[in-house]
Design brief:
The structure is a homodimer of 298-residue chains. In chain A, helix 8 crosses helix 12, helix 8 packs across helix 13 and helix 12 packs antiparallel against helix 13. In chain A, 51% of the residues lie in helices and 13% in strands. Chain A folds into 2 domains: 169 residues, Rossmann fold; 118 residues, N-(1-d-carboxylethyl)-l-norvaline Dehydrogenase, domain 2 (Orthogonal Bundle). The radius of gyration of chain A is 20 Å and the shape is elongated. Chain A contains 14 helices and 9 strands.
Chain lengths: 298, 298
């Protein structure tokens, strides 16, 4: 990477593709730290805030790539990632010499490996670096960032990642970041079933659900979901912190990759079927805590 | 209840039946607070520590009941509870006038209601008051105690409960304590599947499982089990904090009571089938974290 990456003192040019709720916050932190930031987003309106902060707009992703030493992508689905990285107009075919690519989308480990190999064949560097922490973590620059790719590339971009997150961990070679993010989602999926079932049971038994949380939240049943999402389930607040449709995407990625490894994940499979029921009931754009509706039959 | 229940200043006589690992600690705290404590346990050797602290031994449960104003039971299975409370030699037929009974065993809500009704018909008071916090919580008097029964009886025995626990909550009428404990176990059951699956997936993907925990433990996937039991799974340490055989008992109670209420709990049902596989593989006396062995196929 050309020059140093110290905050506020760098000649490194950053490209940021995908300036949705999280991406806009993340790119904003880089901009505030003095980096020149070039952006592209499918819906230009969502980049306006960044442009007002001095980011440079391009009408096509490949033009971002042509201007940037480090290109960060924060997209929706693996198919978006595939489309934007590959092909004649893709990022990898329009990159600066020796450029770095960081895909921070939650995407498939197999695709991350493919991008890494293709990048290496062109003398480029690609890392997969999905995050957890949601829009609040992105806004407060407190993301957990899980990185896959080679060590030299990780060290080179780490100062940028430290601007966006507080828990930046190199998890291994290409794909390891995505695999780690899948571990995160696998853990959450079954726990959401448990939390939903406990509240549904409490209600059926005639208990005061909020009072039940007082007894169980701080002990061995305790979890982030029980503390943060159970109260929303009780209140009937199904507004999205994290969208059901995105969670179902992640579950599919995890199940596909597990199948490739010959691993059965019965809990995750159950979560998939329950969340698909939720989608059939129109829950695509609810938050993941809406699983309670399916379990409680509401 | 005769006299006051202030620590160290009470004429209230306590009976404690079931002085296993947890029961012995709990009875010990009452004794250290100045209460006269009468004890019975199936295996007398396990009461020796208490007898050295001045507790009074009886060869039969009914003799404990004859001496005590408040009788606490901390047993293994609902069948033990049923046997010790009912019948000619049972606690309820040998109680002091107006005595209080606290069943702190994790047992069935239906049985708790039955005990409560039978007690009331004799002018006695019964509460169900199961706990969470395990042997450490019992030793350190930091249990969470979930209480079902009428308010007057709860208020009368609360000073005793406050000696054994730090989180004493009245959850409702008879059975509500047991229902609440079931909510605790339901939440844990599915989360154990998620934690086990995440670690099995991490291993299959070639990740360093401990490094994965650094990325995921403090965010939305975080839980008591992930922080406390996942490291033991990784280390292959399946020593019991909480026995598989006891957890399977609790799962059965929860599923039976859910069925009585017409509620389906697919996550808990899956947990039951996985834990039963673990028992078929000889895991009865392992800790609940041994579920990892089944998921990872180890």
């Amino acid at each position: 990477m050309a020059g140093n990456t110290q905050a506020g003192a760098s000649s490194t040019v950053i490209g940021f593709i995908g300036t949705g709720i999280m991406g806009a916050s993340m790119a904003g932190h880089l901009r505030k730290n003095g980096y020149e930031v070039h952006v592209y987003n499918r819906t230009k309106a969502r980049a306006e805030g960044l442009l007002q902060q001095g980011a440079v707009w391009h009408d096509q992703p490949k033009d971002v790539a042509k201007h940037a030493d480090v290109v960060i992508t924060m997209l929706g689905y693996p198919s978006d990632v595939e489309q934007i990285y590959f092909g004649a107009d893709g990022l990898l075919n329009n990159a600066r010499d020796g450029a770095y690519f960081l895909d921070m989308t939650t995407s498939s480990p197999a695709l991350a490996k493919r991008i890494s190999q293709e990048a290496a064949s062109k003398g480029l560097h690609a890392l997969d670096a999905p995050v957890s922490g949601g829009d609040v973590g992105a806004r407060e620059a407190k993301l957990s960032i899980m990185v896959g790719g080679d060590t030299q590339a990780f060290e080179a971009v780490k100062p940028l990642l430290d601007i966006m997150g507080t828990n930046v961990v190199h998890q291994g070679s290409a794909g390891a970041g995505q695999y780690t993010k899948m571990c995160n989602q696998i853990t959450i999926a079954s726990n959401m079933i448990g939390v939903s079932e406990a509240l549904a049971y409490a209600k059926a038994a005639g208990l005061d659900q909020t009072q039940v949380l007082k007894s169980i939240s701080s002990g061995a049943a305790g979890s982030w979901s029980l503390s943060n999402l159970a109260p929303r389930m009780i209140a009937g607040d199904f507004a999205p912190g994290f969208y059901v449709k995105h969670f179902v995407k992640d579950i599919r990625i995890a199940l596909d990759s597990a199948a490739e490894m010959g691993l059965e994940l019965p809990g995750l499979k159950l979560a998939q079927s329950l969340y698909e029921q939720l989608i059939e009931h129109g829950g695509d754009n609810d938050g993941t805590q809406a699983l309670y509706r399916i379990i409680a039959g509401e």
